[in-house]
Amino acid sequence: MAPEISLRAPDIRAWLRDHLTGEFAPLVGTGGPGREHEHLDLRARWERVLGAAGWIGLGWPAPYGRGASIAEQVVFFEEYARAGGPGRLSHIGEYLLAPTLIEHGTDAQRRRFLPPIASASELWCQGYSEPGAGSDLAGVRTRATLDGDRWLVTGQKVWTSLAHVADWCFVLARTDPASTRKAGLSYLLVPMHQPGVTVRPIVQLTGTSEFNEVFFDGAVADADLVVGAPGDGWRIATSTLSYERGVATLGQQLGFARELAAVVAAARANGTFDDPVVADRIADAWAGLQGLRHHALRTLSATSPDPTGASVAKLLWAGWHQRLGELAMDVGGPLSTVLAEAPDDLTDSQRLFLFTRADTIYGGSDEIQRNIVADRVLGRVQR
Amino acid sequence: MAPEISLRAPDIRAWLRDHLTGEFAPLVGTGGPGREHEHLDLRARWERVLGAAGWIGLGWPAPYGRGASIAEQVVFFEEYARAGGPGRLSHIGEYLLAPTLIEHGTDAQRRRFLPPIASASELWCQGYSEPGAGSDLAGVRTRATLDGDRWLVTGQKVWTSLAHVADWCFVLARTDPASTRKAGLSYLLVPMHQPGVTVRPIVQLTGTSEFNEVFFDGAVADADLVVGAPGDGWRIATSTLSYERGVATLGQQLGFARELAAVVAAARANGTFDDPVVADRIADAWAGLQGLRHHALRTLSATSPDPTGASVAKLLWAGWHQRLGELAMDVGGPLSTVLAEAPDDLTDSQRLFLFTRADTIYGGSDEIQRNIVADRVLGRVQR
Amino acid sequence: MTPEQEALRASVADFFSTGADWGRLTGELGLTALAIGEEHGGFGASLVEVGIVLEEAGAALLSSPLLATTVAALAVDPSLPAAADLLPALAAGDLIGTVALDGTCTARPAGDAFVLDGSFAHVLDAAPAGVVMVSDGTALFAVTDPDLRPQPTLDQTRGQGTLVLWQTPGRLVSHNPAHAQDLLHAALAAESVGVARAALRFTVEHLRTRSQFGVPLATFQALRHRVADLHVQLEQAVSSVWFALGAASTPEFATAAPLAKLIATEAAYTVTRASIQLLGGIGFTWEHDAHRYLKRATANRLLAGDPVTLRRLLLSRADL
Amino acid sequence: MTPEQEALRASVADFFSTGADWGRLTGELGLTALAIGEEHGGFGASLVEVGIVLEEAGAALLSSPLLATTVAALAVDPSLPAAADLLPALAAGDLIGTVALDGTCTARPAGDAFVLDGSFAHVLDAAPAGVVMVSDGTALFAVTDPDLRPQPTLDQTRGQGTLVLWQTPGRLVSHNPAHAQDLLHAALAAESVGVARAALRFTVEHLRTRSQFGVPLATFQALRHRVADLHVQLEQAVSSVWFALGAASTPEFATAAPLAKLIATEAAYTVTRASIQLLGGIGFTWEHDAHRYLKRATANRLLAGDPVTLRRLLLSRADL
């Protein structure tokens, strides 16, 4: 168990000031969506510093974690974002797999996997989306067969963030070959460092790589590394998706606020802030971000959360963020069309503009989210 | 046959100046969508003056009409609109029924119906839409049965413009009781002045009436008053719809230009024109109207017209016009929320705002138009 | 929401569905007394409860001076002498109040009171008002038996009027007229959420029950996605109003209230316009309520600061 | 379109699909000679033919100084002495041209020529240009062997550069620099229609061939309606460009050209953004062309007057 830490804002601030320095100083403001390729090794070490101090798994219920309240977690996220803490590498394990294991896993699985997540000695990635199926998770074609005491996994996943640094992947695979759609899927925990697993970075429209293709070619996982019963993967996987919302949202929004501040600074610097048409759009962006914050605060405090709340939140933030990228380019004007002089690289505005194109696609496209919301509001139809 | 008239712009202008005066002077700027209730009797007399002079049926091919070119018709429409000529009452006969009869009718039908359309001694209305079916024309439930030498028509139509002044109605009715959808429909010509026909004005959100419900309760039409073969009504009706586009568009756009000019005048008068955010929207409206004009000119001059062109044009103008109504209200600001002092009536901005809500619904809703366009671009799907 | 708040919502919704009898509304339900302090005959509830009531009033498209009276009462500083005269009458419903913020006036002291000259437009529910709280930009003054002249409105369910002040006596009721505007913003925002929610509800009902091409309208994905977007916008509006009402006694109210007004009135405007489109022909008729919701949404959007004005206000108050 | 114009379109589309060899483009196809008068070695075609070529160049995302050279040539007043030296070389493709309109400079007469001082940014296809037509706001001057410094661009398929003028000689080529800008607007508009059309085409192809939930994406009504809207916007852009190109020699060109630039670049921006969304994951990858179309559309939108600037220009030129 990690040492006792204080969750008071000044103490968190002091801890971050003391640790995000020296060899870690270059990490300030790096990583995160669109910059996930930056300083990978150093960030992995930083995660272990965070883990050793006890910052990972704050919100996990006892006995697995600290059981910090939402308000306490918010304080940590806000301070972390204010300090310019780098994009996290351990969040997929911490925020997606861990709650899944706590809810659906066996004791053995929790004992085996939670501690190395908390210490950041094992990093995770998520194997859901497949080529050709897009956001249609039930179209999974990756297959797994039980061969004695192990699963043999064959198939291909895409949009796999951080697969190139991950030690493990939770994989949605079809274990009943006769099944279709949501039936016959299982939720497997597959080690990444083995001959049957190949990671190929996808070069994105930004010219950098953040997402990957992952090829499983007879990859092996021990027989007991299935979460829930074999065939129950759909239920487990969708429960994982529901964890994506949560307090991390507020940290994300502080990142957004920094990006908006940069756009405002650029508009002040080149004079477009004085153009009322631009000012109106900036005010709209500011209002939208406040709205996101109010929405997160309301939904986090709701006693009976709306089951489609994650979809509503995703539609709100993805659209807002994408519009911010467009505003950033427009504020830059013609200069937005040329690259930064040296290095011959994207400017922050260009990276924001291009990378936010993905916000409305990955993690369930806007279209999928609208389907989910409409099912709730209008009733389901067969799809 | 009407007397010979000159189609030169100055001559048209002179004719309008000489005739749109005296008893007809009050008609300037009246009628048309949203004001269709104004001066109905006087406008009916005005139509007969137009007809006697030979202005109705200009574009009908010889021997039925003058066979005026599109360019010549454009000149007439533009001059008519510039002179503030009142909204036309004979246009449904002139632009929808007449081309249908010329293409699909019998000689006897053409001889019987075209001259009174050209003289405006018989006015027409269109009986397509039905309650509960919305824009789904193939959902027609009005029935007609052949009873000896006459059709007996029973059913209900809605959205019937000018039914209260019309002498005749072309009605899409189901003549094969066993049929569904597009089969078994017929295109009948039904006299309005008979006991079996009841017209009930629909009071609209503007508080005025322009559209009607028409109830057919054993209404009678002679057996030979079917256009095309019985059962061929779907094909005839859709061909009528294709005539809706055409040179009338350019006249409509001059009406739009007058409305935009009024919005600009209001913005100048209350100072909002000097607000760059408002000016940007006004410029956008102006640009959009120019775009509509360029689009009409291109499609009118096309040698092989796009079959979905009418849908594209409808989506463009309906959306533009609706946004203009919204802009007009915003330019007025808080004053847009109070009625004109005396009479206690809608202001022009309010009428424009409210009435343009219908633009994206009637004559095939935006959704139906998008279906049609998508069928063309992406291929049909069953609906 | 707490169980008490849920119960309040249910009871006022039930009551509003039967009309808006002022006697019952103020007497039996005590809705004008809700947020007035107990020392002045009120219940001392928070703005959150007021928001619940106003949201339901919006959903029912209530024709009542409830919003205007509530804002007028909340704008009064309870520690000033005039409060003791005004608030009990407002709480009891014996006095109908409103606010005049859209106009100009000058105030000069005259003994214990002030003399006001100026004029205002778009005073909500002017006709029945017995007192109007008038801003001269630095303070708020209560004018009783005001010279209010009703104006016919596009939104037939809520009247407006102009106010003329000519050597008119007024009593100081607040040193903070900006707060009165914030309260008006928050109140209109809460009401607009109700307008949007009700319009979305009857639109959804229509889509679920009407068929086209042989299947319910609700099965068409293009309409489903449009409804989803409306739901998302409404949820955002609910959150903004929730936050503003909860922030009533904090400095953040000065941005949260106009923000809520911006977001909630835009949501209501979008939903009610879409509603008419999605209802098709029936939504264009006088007999269907859709146009009344659209007209209220339009009025709430353009009164007390249109969206452009609100964004400018927010930019000036934002920490950017 | 006439049969000759159809044939031109087909032949350039075919040629561009194989690349953009400057020798063949200028020699065999004579594309830079198209709108140059016959007296200067050109074909004397109208701007309509130029538009067809540029639209196809946009559809192919051609990496070539064709647009810049064409605009430079068309900006030259053929009756001025310099024209006889410049136009034949531009027509033959021996000289690559461009225009510098985004910047400031002063020109003073020096004998037969002028001496220019100033600087410009965002000069299209600066690297290969042998002549640049520079505006001082009142006239246009040809500067040969210009001091152009390439800038790396987001749109890898079209370069830009800065131009520095320091006592640089230039020859008068036009008294109408505003016309040069109109020409640039019309050219970028025509190209943007091609960009939008190609992006819509590959997006439609994707929707027709890829399945989700067991059926082709093209069967989902929400996607169908989105595509319909894109088609409508593209059709509007085609019309605006058609009108502007046909109005090249009329006073209406001064509004029609920026209008076409506004409408067509917005269409391309909308289509290419939607394209990435509709393509899903594959559209986000470097290997798919979608991002190149988006980047070109973005550049065409922001260069030579962004939408807000164009709307202001139109308002100043409109008869309102």
Give the helix level of chain A as a range of percent: 40-55%
Task: List low-pLDDT spans of chain A.
Answer: none
Could you give the order of the helices and strands of chain A? HHHHHEEEEEEEEHHHHHH
Number of helices of chain A: 11
- What multimeric state do the chains show? heterotetramer
Number of strands of chain A: 8
Query: What is the rounded distance between the termini of chain C?
Result: 33 Å
Mean pLDDT of chain A comes to 91
Low-confidence stretches of chain C: none
EC number (chains C, D): 1.-.-.-
Protein name (chains C, D): Acyl-CoA dehydrogenase family protein
GO molecular function, one term (chains C, D): oxidoreductase activity
Family (chains C, D): Belongs to the acyl-CoA dehydrogenase family.
Task: Write out key terms for the chains shown.
heterotetramer; A: 383 residues; alpha+beta; Butyryl-CoA Dehydrogenase, subunit A, domain 2; Butyryl-CoA Dehydrogenase, subunit A, domain 3; 3 domains; four-stranded mixed beta sheet; four-stranded antiparallel beta sheet; C: 320 residues; two-stranded antiparallel sheet; globular
What do these coordinates show?
The complex is a heterotetramer, with 2 copies of chain A (about 375 residues) and 2 copies of chain C (about 325 residues). With about 375 residues, chain A is of the alpha+beta class. Chain A has 3 domains: about 80 residues, no CATH class; about 110 residues, Butyryl-CoA Dehydrogenase, subunit A, domain 2 (Beta Barrel); about 140 residues, Up-down Bundle (Butyryl-CoA Dehydrogenase, subunit A, domain 3), CATH 1.20.140. Chain A has 11 helices and 8 strands. Chain A has a 4-stranded mixed β-sheet. Chain A has a 4-stranded antiparallel β-sheet with strand order 2-3-7-6, with no helix packed on it. Chain A starts with 8 loop residues before the first helix and ends in a 5-residue tail after the last helix. The mean pLDDT of chain A is about 90. Chain C is α+β, with helices and mostly antiparallel strands. Chain C contains 10 helices and 9 strands. In chain C, the strands form 2 sheets. In chain C, strands 1, 2, 3, 4, 5, 6 and 7 form a 7-stranded mixed β-sheet that branches. Chain C has a two-stranded antiparallel ribbon with strand order 8-9. The chains are: A alpha+beta (about 375), C alpha+beta (about 325). At the A-D interface, helix 9, helix 10 and helix 11 of A face strand 8, helix 8 and helix 9 of D.
